[in-house]
Design a protein that fits this description.
This protein has 19 helices and eleven strands. By secondary structure, it is an alpha/beta fold. The strands form three sheets. A five-stranded parallel β-sheet has the order 2-1-7-8-9. A four-stranded parallel β-sheet has the order 4-3-5-6, with helices on both faces. The chain binds iron/sulfur cluster.
Length: about 375
């Protein structure tokens, strides 16, 4: 296992793993492995790994970029909050730039809405404390890594009796979307590179159903180029020997059980709920709703959000990119009208988006 930070940047070791990988797959049919998570996508591009891999090892980007998978209707709901004069909308930076049906949160801000970027959810609680006469709505996005921090913010607000803070939860869960991808037959996959950081919370056992039930190799992998190389090599070995197990490459951060304190916090504040994903539709049990015990902190219950009629941009192919069905250059807008400065879809907006990564790291 790769245990010491120095080794991660060891070009000699990388070359050895690559050579072995090349020999192992020589003459084999191409294998398609999905890096589910946007952090992996960016790491793969930044390191140039994609171009070094043998022809038979192909990486497919998946739906693990929280900004990208946020459905149009949820962006429009966030904008509905921003248009209410009593509301201060808070969220993480990238989400503010995602275009909804008519505008983005940033455009709403330029028209006078009170929209504030925060780096952590507790900052939104602080804003609520500082503005007792306003309603502060935090748009909660992110997977199992981020959701516990938002749960902690809700618990903090409840403990301190802060009654003008609420969360609009569009959090998502990773294992249910992996199952949904495998249930749709549009994709040919031979294994998953599972993200180290999400798995530190949920534990590697969370992928057992995917591995056993779908016969799909899963390797929990860190984010250094060498981690990814080793993870891919473990996937290839599983595939060649006909195994479909959950394995942990990222042993320095991940256990089978995960982080019980974070899980307990999630369990206390949230419950699994159906959630709408961009490009994938509604997936049962793939989101997190705020439990009724904390209903006062649930923006979806605190406000009567009207029915939203979404007008999707028909030219943006983000949905297909997120399902791994097309690569960004196959979108007719890519590089032409859709660029990081003028994004037409969230996959270009987000720092973890596949279109943004292609734009920055390929020519
Ligand atoms: Fe959407 Fe732009 Fe990506 Fe095309 S290049 S799929 S328009 S984000």
């Amino acid at each position: 296992a790769l245990r010491y930070v120095d080794e991660f940047r060891d070009g000699g070791l990388a070359a050895k793993i690559l050579l072995r990988l090349k020999k192992t797959v020589h003459g084999l049919e191409p294998m398609h492995f999905m890096e589910i998570c946007g952090t992996h996508t960016v790491a793969v591009f930044r390191s140039g790994l994609r171009d070094m891999l043998p022809e038979a090892v192909r990486l497919v980007s998946g739906p693990g970029c929280p900004v990208c998978v946020t459905a149009d209707e949820d962006i429009d709901r966030a904008i509905w909050f921003a248009r209410r004069p009593e509301v201060i909308v808070t969220s993480f930076g990238d989400l503010l730039r995602v275009p909804g049906s008519e505008s983005s949160l940033l455009e709403e801000r330029s028209r006078g809405a009170d929209v504030r970027m925060v780096y952590a959810s507790y900052e939104a609680v602080k804003i609520a404390q500082d503005h007792p006469d306003r309603e502060v709505v935090f748009i909660g996005i992110g997977f199992e890594t981020t959701a516990p921090t938002v749960a902690a913010a809700i618990r903090q607000a409840a403990a301190q009796g802060i009654d003008n803070f609420s969360v609009f939860s569009v959090h998502k869960l990773l294992p249910p979307v992996m199952r949904a991808l495998l249930d749709s037959d549009s994709l040919r996959l031979d294994g998953f590179l599972c993200p180290g950081h999400v798995t530190t919370v949920i534990g590697a056992r969370a992928y057992e159903e995917v591995a056993r039930g779908y016969g799909m190799p899963c390797v929990v992998t860190g984010f250094e180029p060498l981690d990814i190389l080793q993870g891919l090599s473990m996937l290839v070995d599983q595939k060649r020997s006909g195994r479909h197990d959950v394995e942990i490459q990222y042993r320095r951060g991940v256990t089978w059980e995960g982080n019980p304190a974070a899980q307990k916090l999630l369990e206390e504040i949230f419950e699994p709920a159906d959630a709408a994903w961009r490009g994938l539709g509604s997936i049962p049990g793939s989101g997190l709703a705020i439990r009724s015990a904390y209903a006062d902190y649930d923006a979806a219950r605190r406000f009567s959000i009207p029915e939203i009629r979404v007008r999707e941009n028909p030219a943006c192919r983000c949905g297909d990119v997120l399902r791994g069905v097309i690569r960004p250059p196959e979108c007719p807008l890519f590089r032409k009208v859709c660029r990081p400065q003028t994004p037409k879809g969230p996959c270009m907006v987000s720092s973890e988006g596949t279109c943004g990564a292609y734009y920055r790291y390929t020519s």
